[in-house]
Amino acid sequence: MHNIGNLEPILQGYFSVSEDKFEFSDKSCFVKGLSGSSLSFIVAAMHGSSGKPTMLVFNEKEEAAYAFSDISTLLGMDRVFFFPSSYKRSIQFNQILSEAIIQRTDVLNLLRQMGDGENQKTVIVTYSDALFEKIPLRNILKENILTISKGERISTDFITEVLFEYGFER
Fold first, then answer.
1. What Å distances lie between residue 145 and 65, 110, 139, 140, 158, CA to CA?
2. How far apart are CA 133 and CA 26, in angstroms?
3. How far apart are CA 163 and CA 170, in angstroms?
4. Which of 5, 17, 91, 109 is least surrounded by Cβ atoms within 10 Å, i.e. has the fewest?
5. Could you tell me if 87 and 97 are in contact, meaning their C-beta atoms sit under 8 angstroms apart?
6. Burial 78-105 (b: 16+ CB within 10 A, else e)
7. Could you tell me whether strands 123-127 and 54-58 are parallel, antiparallel, or unpaired per DSSP bridges?
8. 48-69 tens-digit pLDDT
9. What separation in angstroms does the CA of 40 have from each of 65, 66, 88, 135?
């Protein structure tokens, strides 16, 4: 059984932590019987202790958004990332949200560039609908990135041609 004794001094006075509320497997930890923001406090207290990134998967977008807000407040925005669905409500509605695509790309880039060190101490918050979306393979994503440096001169015809190749329309 894992030792959760280091949580008790931090959480003392807020709620009690008992071994029977935790279920551990090789790479996962399941917590039951919590309410409100108590999970966020536990994640913050345990943050970085494993040396690996932490992913929290919720059933609904709203649950994930509340947890993301709480954990970001406790740990800071530079350590907590939200991995949303690209679609407004569900894939069925087919309304893509550009800000969600940016958030997804940020998380994927973080995971792609992740090595040892500080990036390992990140928390990714998501929900089931977001995980069901397909993402491009790492090598395909790498091949299809157009990198433009500040001060570099590129013709608009070239950019237009590249965007058409990527499937964009006028």
1. 29, 15, 10, 9, 14
2. 26
3. 10
4. 5
5. yes
6. ebbbbbbbbbeeeeeeeeeeeebeebbe
7. parallel
8. 666 678 889 999 999 999 999 9
9. 12, 9, 26, 28
